[in-house]
Structures are given as C-alpha cells and as structure tokens.
Amino acid sequence: MAPAVPLALLALVALLAPGLGVAFPGCDYPAHLWCSSREIAVACQAESRCANLSRPAAAPVELSLYYESLCPACREFLVRELFTTWLLLPAEALSITLVPYGNAKESNVSGKWHFQCQHGPEECLGNMIETCLMHEAKNFSTYFPVIFCLESGSSVTKNLEACLQVYAPQLDGGRVAACVQGETGVALMHRNAQLTEALDPPHQFVPWIVIDGKHTDELQAQAEASLLGLICRLYQGEKPEACGGSVAPKRGSCRR
C-alpha cells in the first residue's frame, strides 16, 4: 500500500487543482499521481479533473475466462498468456472477467448447494478461495496478481496468506476465509455455476475463452497461441505500445 499522503501535500494539490485534494475509498495513491494513469484517476474519482487523460477512442476488448483452479491447462493459460497480456496492455484496451468453476457439478441437497469438481475437493476449495478473493477485493488490479500468485505457485489452496502479503497486504485474509467457510462463498459459487451453464455455445472444456461475448474455435485457438496479438488486432482504439504480437505454443485443455 502506498504511504499516507502528508496533509501539506494534499493542501498544495487542492490549491493547484481544485477538487483533487480529497482521497476516496479505494484510492491508495499519493495525490500527485492521481492523473498519472486512467486507472488511478478512476480509483481516486479524479478522472474529470485530469485534462491530460483523453477519453478512450474505443471500448476495451472484453475477455471472460471460464476455468477451474487446478486444471493444468487453465493455470498455464492464466499465468503465461492472460496475466502477461494484462501487464502489457492498458485498462482501456482489455477488460477481464474470471469465472472459476469449469467442469464442476452442483446439486441442491436439503436446500443447500453442494459442488463436485473435476480435480476433487481441493479444486472446489481453490475455486471458492479465488471467488471469495474477488468478492472481497472488488478491484481487478488488486485481486488478479494474487490469483496469479496462487495459480503459479506450489499450492492454490495453501498460499493465500503468502500471496496476500506480497501482492495485496491491505486485504484481510480473515475476511476471505470467512467467505469461503460461510454462506457467501456458496452463493458466489452457485452464481459461477449459473454463468458457466448459461454459456452459448455450452463449454466443452476449460479453459473456455469468450471474447466480446463470443466463443468460437478460431478465437480460442488464437487466444491460446498469442493472446496479446489477438487483443491488439481486435482493439479498435489507438494501438498500445505493447502491440507487437507474440507467439506461444498452443495450450491444452481439461475436457469433461
């Protein structure tokens, strides 16, 4: 977390740029950085005051990843393609939604939802940890590095505290644990099940990639081969500096 902003600095910024002197919840940046990027300006509710930030020329490419926490192919795509592409591209070019559920099955037993996962109970726990993490963190740029840490590490289910310490020390691991162990986590997983079951066409394997609301074999193959190149081709705004393309071997999948 960024250090607290001195009162004198806030006062100075308020004089130089009226309306920028008050911090908002979710704004962990010093006042002098509020106009340094669109993402920070939005977090600090200062976008309308930042004359240097022009409006984006086009909507971001919308990518939804339907996956399961212990699927090797899902972990490889998330770590090697999705996370690196997200790091390279600005928020105005790419918007990501993560839905951890995959090939799981749910059943209603005496009014309570129960889940069975392709890779066993450990995967169900991993799915719920990541879902509850997203629920508690809210901000994508806060929780995605933690999920990357979990998926790239030795254990998705045992490294939460360590990953939080490195990537999001401001988050309370106890709140995530309470979500996992309580009714909130179950309700969130039921929502993931509904989102996954509503896919059209229905998913046949994971990772299942949806681009701008569409899934095709061609889009899936292009995303797995070079996600950065695909997003760069699809984005209709001014091309970001990183849009030089990349090539990676085709990924596998976890079929039902």
TrEMBL record:
<keyword id="KW-0391">Immunity</keyword>
<dbReference type="GO" id="GO:0002376">
    <property type="term" value="P:immune system process"/>
</dbReference>
<dbReference type="GO" id="GO:0005764">
    <property type="term" value="C:lysosome"/>
</dbReference>
<keyword id="KW-0676">Redox-active center</keyword>
<keyword id="KW-0964">Secreted</keyword>
<keyword id="KW-1015">Disulfide bond</keyword>
<dbReference type="InterPro" id="IPR004911">
    <property type="entry name" value="Interferon-induced_GILT"/>
</dbReference>
<protein>
    <recommendedName>
        <fullName>Gamma-interferon-inducible lysosomal thiol reductase</fullName>
        <ecNumber>1.8.-.-</ecNumber>
    </recommendedName>
</protein>
<keyword id="KW-0325">Glycoprotein</keyword>
<keyword id="KW-0560">Oxidoreductase</keyword>
<comment type="function">
    <text>Lysosomal thiol reductase that can reduce protein disulfide bonds. Facilitates the complete unfolding of proteins destined for lysosomal degradation. Plays an important role in antigen processing.</text>
</comment>
<comment type="function">
    <text>Lysosomal thiol reductase that can reduce protein disulfide bonds. May facilitate the complete unfolding of proteins destined for lysosomal degradation. Plays an important role in antigen processing. Facilitates the generation of MHC class II-restricted epitodes from disulfide bond-containing antigen by the endocytic reduction of disulfide bonds. Also facilitates MHC class I-restricted recognition of exogenous antigens containing disulfide bonds by CD8+ T-cells or crosspresentation.</text>
</comment>
<keyword id="KW-0458">Lysosome</keyword>
<dbReference type="Pfam" id="PF03227">
    <property type="entry name" value="GILT"/>
</dbReference>
<dbReference type="GO" id="GO:0016671">
    <property type="term" value="F:oxidoreductase activity, acting on a sulfur group of donors, disulfide as acceptor"/>
</dbReference>
<comment type="subunit">
    <text>Dimer; disulfide-linked.</text>
</comment>
<comment type="similarity">
    <text>Belongs to the GILT family.</text>
</comment>
<dbReference type="GO" id="GO:0005576">
    <property type="term" value="C:extracellular region"/>
</dbReference>
<keyword id="KW-0732">Signal</keyword>
<feature type="signal peptide">
    <location>
        <begin position="1"/>
        <end position="23"/>
    </location>
</feature>
